Amino acid sequence: MSSFVSGKVEIVDPQKTGVSSISSLEVNSTIQSDFIVATGKGSRMEAKDDPVTWRLGSLSVGKWISRNNFWLHSGSLLFCSDSNTSIVISTTGSTATFEGKGTVIIEATKNGGFKFIPLEGKGVISSTKGGVKKIIGGRLLLILGNPSEFGNAYDIDLNLLLRSSRLINSFPDPLSSFPKIGLAIYIQELKLKGKYNALIGDATSNKNLQMWKFGKNTGVEPPTKQRSESKKGFFKGFFGKD
Questions:
Q1: Which DSSP helix (H) or strand (E) runs through 105?
Q2: What is the domain range of residue 214?
Q3: What is the pLDDT at residue 153?
Q4: Which end of the chain is more exposed for a tag (fewer CB within 10 A), N or C?
């Protein structure tokens, strides 16, 4: 059930045709499985289905295939659960299953895969090709291909993500896991001591990515493209906007 709606958020009923299939999403509305949810620029929505909180970011399109199975066509998604659960996430070209609890941001990439960004939590994520990885707060995984497999795991700046992500800080009620996210930031700072040198944006293909390097005097430099040596050798730092 939707608990918060900001801006222009619409749902599409696949059982109807034409204009009658599209309607605005209202607070306290029940979102049926297979109803497509689309957010406009600067818009976002939150839905709660105990024990999971879902948030859909700006310019995002997706749908619940079933209660714990979400398909993200484009844009960004956050899910948060304080209890152990099993969540299936899929995009236009990849699928993975998370089992555990925590707070995770998902962002679809142009190559059909997605970024899996745990902010905090405990559990494992498994790919359809058979790989299994333990999740760690602040350690990003890229999910690629069909059947899906993992790219390498890399640490991102949780503190920067927390301060800049509207999926976290542009909702009236804080996430129930907020204290745990704060602890994950503290632990990461102790381990990595701020050793970050790049922000990485969208993966436009399985061999190309966009990179913003930190300049010594000017802050962030314009984006450049970098080619990986192989599909598994992707990213040495990764950060996604929502």
A1: strand 95-108
A2: 2-227
A3: 76
A4: N
- Residue range 198-239, pLDDT digits in tens: 444 555 555 554 444 444 443 333 343 444 333 333 223 323
Quote the CA–CA distance of 52 and 218 in Å, as a whole number.
41
For residue 240, being part of any structural domain is answered with no
Give the pLDDT band of residue 189 (cuts 50, 70, 90). Answer: confident
In this predicted structure, what is the pLDDT of residue 169? 92
The answer to whether residue 113 is domain-embedded is: yes
Domain count, the chain: 1
